[in-house]
Model the fold of this input.
Amino acid sequence: MSENASAFTSALQQREAEFSARLGEEMPRTLEQLVKLCQIPSVAFPGYDRAPVHESAEMVRQLLLDAGLEDVEIASVADGSPAVIGRRPAAPGKPTVMLYAHHDVQPEGDHALWTSPPFSPEVRGERLFGRGAADDKAGIMAHVTALRLAADALAETGVGVTVFVEGEEECGSPTFRPFIEKYSDKLRADAIVVADSANWAVGQPALTTSLRGVVDMEVSVRVLDHAVHSGMFGGPVLDALTLLSRLIATLHDDEGNVAVAGLVSAPEPEVEMPEEDLRRDASTVAGYRLAGTGSLTGRLWAKPALSVIGIDAPAVAGASNTMTPAARAKLSLRIAPGQEPADAMRALEEHLLANAPFGAQVKVTRGEEGKAFVAPQDSPGMRAARAAMHASWGVQPVDIGIGGSIPFIADLLEVFPQADILVTGVEDPDSRAHGIDESLHLGDFERVCLAEALLLSSIHLADN
Done:
């Protein structure tokens, strides 16, 4: 063992005992503040009230001041939602760690489907239920709690900390790139902890080392200039919704694999997921046959996935006996690590235009593009994060992929190319982020806070 590695292990052991003793005292305050933060309906989507987003940013600012950061500001760029930047500069020659989270949340959906009101957080058993409880207001409070635990250690070691809490992640981070370019001097760091992912299971921590990219597209099919009587013209004329359905059906083969030429797959992951776990976490109905071929983790992390996420068509209620002249759908394509979004967009467009059913007019409108992410398997920051997780949970963390996307990571890598990106998170497979009854496992949340405090207090000793 090198001298640095020995010092790193010794520091972790010393800090783990110290921080664990204090963590129990801190958690009641942390949970109380998390509940208050989750009571703010900070949805940043267009059309929603902007006042709660500003209220949420102000609470985050106060939390960071309370956690010992003296340089804290609310900032934004033109047309952007308010973000919060808090800083504790590093001593000369010491590294700086940036801690990322976001304070905006997904729309809550139908309140009647929630077991308890989405913006009235409620503890039931070992979980806190409420919109934003897991994604990502717990990420904010993990940073705040870690800073409280590690305050003395940071003063002793001189490690710098910057906290960046975004306010528009859930609606696609539309001003993320200009924001980090404008504030690059304040955000520049040696390591960046993105606390917006998930752990492998309750009691089993994980580092996310790959993320699929994403592109989306609208496709419309037109067969008539206007609606006509289905009895008078049905037969030789097929309605646009039928033809749109036939076009969508060409996107997958009979096994459920994406059947768009030009899309690529990444190497198979080294870990596998039990089928019963996937079925439980995805809440599949009885009798449903899982789609695709290959390992489950490969299908989730390393292969493309294509979903219809919206469709414009006449509603069943009030439908008349007329043939629909045009129909439109929105497609979301998750792309494997290693594929460029522009190439995937082009491949999907070419497929849709080439498979126009019965000569119908097909039009595509390109949407957003987000790059995939693959982390280096070994780096000083990765080693430090794994060691901190092991010390906190008592088990070795798993390197996992995530089928979802965090496109702004590509922007972070381009603006801060020397930074070590560490993707962590507070969610578990039952957190239901973005869904009804979103929740946070409180036991694992404590372990996340402890692991991050250990990382901050020891990263300067990570063996290069």
User: Anything to note?
Assistant: Residues 76 and 248 are 40 Å apart (CA to CA). The first strand starts at residue 71 and ends at 75.
